[in-house]
Each structure stands twice: as C-alpha cells, then as structure tokens.
Specification:
Layout: H1 2-22, H2 36-41, H3 43-48, E1 53-65, E2 68-75, E3 78-85, H4 86-89, H5 91-100, E4 106-115, E5 121-132, H6 148-153, H7 155-161, H8 163-185, E6 189-190, E7 196-197, E8 209-212, E9 217-221, H9 227-235, E10 240-248, E11 260-269, H10 273-292, E12 296-299, E13 302-305, E14 312-314, H11 315-323, H12 332-342, H13 351-363, E15 370-373, E16 385-386, E17 389-393, E18 395-400, E19 403-410, H14 415-430, H15 441-449, E20 454-460, H16 461-468
Parallel strand pairs: 3-5, 6-10, 14-15
Antiparallel strand pairs: 1-2, 1-4, 2-3, 4-5, 7-9, 8-9, 10-11, 11-20, 12-13, 15-18, 16-17, 18-19, 19-20
Length: 486
C-alpha cells in the first residue's frame, strides 16, 4: 500500500508540472458565487433561467466514459454531480481534465444546471480551473483511515470523509452557543480572565508550569475557568458573570479526561447552591432539546432521561452504604485497607485523596441524572460549610452515567475560614500532594474587603461527550498527539 501511495504521488507531481505550464494551480483569487446547497435548493429556477453558476470545492470521485466524464464536487454545504463534456469544453480542455485532474483536487467550475437521463440534478461544466492540486490521495482510495491514532492525527481527512463526524462538531458549536444564549438571557455577563497565573486556583489538579521571561517568574496555565478571578468580580460589584474558555491539567488521559479542554463557569451573587442546582438543571435540559432534540440518552452503557426527577444522593451515606466506610471518621489506614480489598487503584495516601477515590468507586453504580450533595469540607476547599453540620459543605455535583458531569457550590466568602483552608492545602502540598490547591493569599485579601454571598458552577465539554456518547478525544477537533518518531 505504501508503495502505491508513493507511486501515485510521483504521478501527481508530473501532472502538477504540466499544470504549471498551463496556469497557476494554486491561485489566491477564486470565483465562487454559490454554495452547492444553494444550487440544489434553487435548482429548478437556475435550470429554467439557464443561469451560469460558479462553484468551488474538492473533487471526490471521477468517472470517465470516452468523451464524457462525471465527477462529484464537494464543499462544506453539500455535494453535486458535475458533467465534463468534450463537446462543451473543447478537445484540449477536456483532455487536460481527463489527464491532469485527480480525485482530491480543488476546482473552480462554471456551468449550467441540467438533469441527467437517470434523473440526477447535475451541473454541465462550461469551464474549470484547478485551484489546488492534491499530491496525495484521499484515504478512502486505500480503504479509509481505520487506525484510531491515525484518524486523530489526520483529523482533516477523517472529517472530510466522515459526514457523521462533521455533524458532530456542528452540534458541538451549537452546544456552546446554546449555553452562551441561555446564560445571556438569564442576565449573565460574559467575561475573559487570565490563562497565566502565579498560583492555580479553583480546582485540585497538577498544573502545567512555564517561565515568564520578562517578569522572571514561574507561572502556570490555569486549571479552572477563572474561578478566583470571577469571584473577584463579585467583590467588584458584578452580580452575574460567566466565561467559556480553556483549562489545562497536566495529568492522565482517559475517555473522559484531556489535558486541554473547554469549560464554562458562572458566578451568581446573592444566590446559593440550591439556586444554582435549579438553574443548571434547566440549562442541561435546554441543551438536550436544542442540540440533540431529545432528553433521553445512552452513554457508557447507561441509560438516562434528563426530563426525569433528579434525586439527591448524600456523599457520606452513599460511600457508607457501598463500602462500609464512614468518610468523616474513618482513619487513613481503614480507607487504604478497603480500597485494597475492593482492588481499586489509588494515588497518594492523604485523607482527602483516599476519600475521593472511595467516592469515585461508588459513583459507577449511579446512572443519573442525580445531584450528589453534602460533600465533606476536606474535599471542598472553596465551598461554604453547612450551618447544621460544619463538616459538610453546600456543594453539588451532577452525576450522569456513573460520572461527575458538573460541579457547583455556595462559594466560601469568610476570609478567616478561607485562610485556614488554604493553610491546610499548603500542608498537603508540603507532604507531596501535587493535586492539592495552591493557596492564593491575594484572593484571601480580596475576601477581607468583602465578597457577597455567591454561588458558582462549572460544566463543560465532558457533558457534550456524554450526550454524544463519544470519548472526549473523539469530540475534540485536534486532540494532542505524540509526534511521530519518523
């Protein structure tokens, strides 16, 4: 197969040399008055009026029958059959088409609409021009891209030949637009916050680190969508803000995790986590209907309906029921023993990390949709504690298909409490926990100036991947790939 591709490339290079003698096969100016879909939609009128239409696109196949050849021209909007006639084009132009044009080439064409004897709406080409000569064949000629890594590495070819995949990213664009429209209609103001930070805040994850040459300081790519910055805006007088943007976490990949991903976070002054739960539930249902046309989904072997009631699941009670471990009082060695007994892999032996691993074991039994509530304070360093039980927080996570697909809480705005929790996180860092939250003392200073009661929520493209029932790599246009050694 490799030899065939090398041989074809050599043939196409010869054709390129001949095309260069005729005209520039890579011009910058192209005449394109119609999209293919517009021609097909208005075909009857265009045919009746004998309108000359100008199209541009990629040739997807060629069939030659003596003095008549057919080809399919594809642009983003659709595909149409072209007819190249020796009588219409003249001997030389027709000969050049047959001998020098290949599948995958881009052409500019002019022609008139007609219907073939088989009843197919087509375009009779009156003139054509090569506007980009392809030196390599399309993958379908060699039975398509089958290898998963090759598909992701050569995403442009996968998208070209896979209509379902192209439609997936149209839906993803709509997914973000629905979120943006929903938040705007609810009175939220869209903002942009820094990507580079001197301390990472808003989540527990290992960051990417780099050096700022001008300031001569180390900085980090953010691991949340500006949580601590957006909360500064609450102190500044804004009451409803949101941001859609990239976050970066230097940790492992999985079907549900990438090191670079897009999320949305919103912050809402004078509201608490219960208000956020209602708004988020409404948003998820809106996305489901507007983007996918249904509230019923099947993902990762689970079935769920977002129109159903969303029960509340107690963090402590769920872990206790499924493992026999009370996370509020159990010692580290008890949790380690139980995880070993369950044959669950765990990283680190801090109480916080062990507690979180036990919960992740339990969540696989929940199809959802459901709200996980009453998280322990230890695993929620930025959430406000419950007045009736200061060991628990006013936090929720949305559970769908055994995974956490959304997170929110009443934001901690007590500067004394926040300072204490950051000090506890620093102890974890000093003990070697690379995912513990970095203290941000300037954020504590902001809280001392006063921040109103606020709730915040983070959701993102993991939700889209679950609704589409695809891995998050599959729903990313160009996921990071290791360079080929050759």
């Amino acid at each position: 197969m490799e030899n065939n591709i090398i041989s074809e490339r050599a043939e196409r290079l010869e054709k390129l040399n001949k095309l260069n003698e005729i005209s520039n096969p890579y011009p910058s100016k192209v005449e394109k008055d119609f999209a293919v879909s517009e021609v097909l939609t208005n075909f009857v009128d265009l045919e009746k009026n004998k309108t000359i239409v100008s199209l541009a696109g990629r040739i997807m196949n060629i069939r030659t029958h003596g003095n008549l050849s057919f080809a399919n021209l594809k642009d983003f909007s659709g595909e149409i059959q072209l007819a190249f006639s020796k009588n219409e084009l003249g001997v030389d132009n027709y000969k050049n088409f047959v001998k020098l044009v290949d599948m995958a080439d881009f052409l500019e064409i002019k022609g008139t609409c007609f219907v073939t004897h088989k009843g197919e709406n087509s375009l009779l080409v009156t003139s054509y021009r090569v506007i980009s000569k392809a030196l390599a064949p399309l993958p379908e000629k060699w039975h398509g891209l089958k290898d998963e890594e090759e598909r992701l590495r050569k995403r442009y070819l996968d998208l070209l030949t896979n209509e379902d995949l192209r439609d997936l990213f149209v839906k993803k664009a709509k997914f973000w637009q629905v979120i943006r429209d929903f938040m705007t209609k609810k009175g939220f103001f869209e903002v942009e916050t820094p990507f580079l930070e001197t301390t990472t805040g808003g989540a527990e994850a290992r960051p990417f680190k780099t050096h700022h040459n001008d300031f001569d300081i180390d900085v980090y790519l953010r691991i949340s969508i500006g949580e601590l910055w957006q909360k500064r805006l609450m102190a500044a007088g804004y009451e409803k803000v949101f941001e859609i943007g990239k976050a970066f976490r230097n940790e492992g990949s999985s079907p549900d995790h990438l090191q670079e991903f897009t999320n949305m976070e919103f912050y809402w002054a004078y509201a608490n986590y219960r208000d956020a739960m209602k708004l988020t539930q409404e948003l998820y249902r809106e996305i489901a209907v507007q983007v996918f046309g249904t509230t019923k989904f099947e993902s990762r072997g689970y079935k769920y309906d977002l129109a159903d009631e969303w029960p509340e699941i107690d963090y402590r009670e769920e872990v206790l029921a499924r493992t026999g471990i009370d996370v509020l009082i159990a010692k580290e060695e008890e949790m380690v023993k139980k995880l070993q007994e369950l044959k669950v892999k765990y990283d680190g032996k801090t109480r916080e990390r062990l507690m979180d691993t036990l919960w992740k074991y339990c969540r696989k039994n929940i199809s959802g949709p459901a709200f996980l509530v009453n998280h322990p304070k230890l695993v929620s360093p930025l959430a406000k504690v419950k007045e009736e039980n200061p060991e628990l927080t006013e936090r929720f996570q949305i559970i769908i298909a055994g995974s956490e697909i959304g997170n929110g809480y009443s934001e901690l705005n007590d500067p004394v409490d926040q300072r204490k929790r950051f000090e506890e996180q620093q102890i974890l860092i000093d003990r070697g926990d690379e995912e513990a939250m970095m203290p941000d003392w300037e954020f504590v200073e902001m809280l001392e100036h006063g921040m109103p009661p606020t709730c915040g929520v983070g959701i993102g493209e993991r939700l889209f991947s679950f609704m589409a029932n695809k891995s998050i790599r599959e729903t990313t246009l160009f996921p990071l790939m290791k360079p080929k050694k050759d």
